[in-house]
Design goal:
mainly beta, 102 residues
């Protein structure tokens, strides 16, 4: 079965250890020198409808992916193996200009 990177964005990521839904694939990290996929990235959950930003993004290494199915990706997922920087929310950006913090 062949799969495009754009097809991965429509798939739910599920932990096979706990059976919980982690989220949807939002991004993929690619090593352009070796033409390999390094990891999939699931954006953190929104806090207060996204106004207060997001939780940390979840980075799942490619070696932890067990099965890529038609609707879901099953992964060996421990408690947050890697984290990317949080995204700031609306209020942070709105008050940043008012407070003079650049």
């Amino acid at each position: 079965m062949h799969c495009r990177i754009s097809d991965l964005r429509c798939k739910e990521v599920v932990s096979i250890k706990t059976g919980t839904k982690i989220g949807m694939v939002c991004d993929v990290a690619v090593d352009t020198c070796n033409a390999t996929i390094l990891s999939i990235i699931v954006y953190g959950k929104c806090r207060l409808f996204g106004l207060l930003g997001r939780e940390d993004d979840i980075v799942i290494p490619w070696c932890d992916i067990n099965i890529i199915g038609r609707d879901a990706i099953l992964v060996n997922y421990n408690e947050r193996p890697c984290r990317r920087k949080k995204r700031k929310g609306f209020f942070h950006n709105a008050f940043k200009g008012l407070m003079g913090n650049d």
